[in-house]
Amino acid sequence: MPIIPTDNPEKFDYCEFWPIAQAVMHYPCVAAVGSDYEKKRQYLIYYYQAKLFQKHPDLDGEEGWFGPWHVRVAAGGKRVKELGDDQESIYKSALHAAQWLRFRLFASTNAPDHNSNGKSDYYAAHILPPRLQWKHLYRSEGRVLKARMTYGPVAHLWAACMDQPEFIEKLAQGMLRTPPLLAMASANILRMHRDQLLARAQAYFQAAVSAGVFGDGEGSIPLDQIWQLPGNIAPDAAVTFDTPDLTGERVPVEHLLEDYKIRSRY
């Protein structure tokens, strides 16, 4: 199983946690060892590492920005657009993966009759968009399915970023232009944000394993595809799953899914 290291990340050329996490969240496929896809992940790690040093030179230790390693990192980095991909499409797909995980964890304990990928996809494509009017939502179950299949292995990481009031507020206002981890990383509380993110992501991950959303069951994502955090990271006990979507609003799921039940009869 792939692990995002929090200390001494030798496999990733000793880059910081933040750049590694950002790149993994954008390019999560683990079956692409040695492929162009994996190279994209490394290019993006270098890009975010260079941006991190520019924004927070105090994190750079004693060697300074112009050491040989930094030159290699700066020269080797490429942003998403340079890699031939669209940031907004990745963002939409990641949002749906996080929403899928949120719905499944809610349904596993609060609405077991609705605990399925089919109902989650229906909810995301047909119920959320007209209710929220977010431009970062797909309105096709097929596109929702593709999104969760691609970004499901990092859904717990995206959910840890997105399941926060300030994120949802900015999303609703169309204000998000910066990838979420760097947007959260202010100079004075960067480390605290990292610890908060790790704890929230671990809470989502452990809940997903317990609910069978991550695992070997039908419709689950196998653990060997999931980007996990080190086992010594304690989950955030304050994270709960008593609402079906990332808005945190309590909604009548049974009533909202009536059309799905009617459609499934035919």
Briefly note the structural class of the backbone. mainly alpha
Give unreliable regions as ranges. 61-65, 184-190
Tally of structural domains = 2
Strand content: under 5%
What is the 3D form?
globular
The SSE string, one letter per element, is HHHHHHHHHHHH
Mean pLDDT: 81
The rounded distance between the terminal residues' Cα atoms is 40 Å
Q: Report the sheet with the most strands, covering strand number, pairing sense and barrel closure.
A: none
Number of helices: 12
| Percent range of helical residues | 40-55%
Spatial extent as radius of gyration: 19 Å
What is the tally of beta strands?
A: 0
Describe the structure.
With 266 residues, the protein is mostly helical. It folds into 2 domains: 10-83, no CATH class; 87-263, no CATH class. The chain is built from 12 helices and no strands. It has helices spanning 17-26, 36-55, 68-76, 87-110, 117-132, 141-151, 155-162, 165-172, 180-184, 190-211, 253-256, 258-263. Helix 4 (87-110) packs across helix 5 (117-132) and helix 5 packs across helix 6. The longest helix has 24 residues, at 87-110.
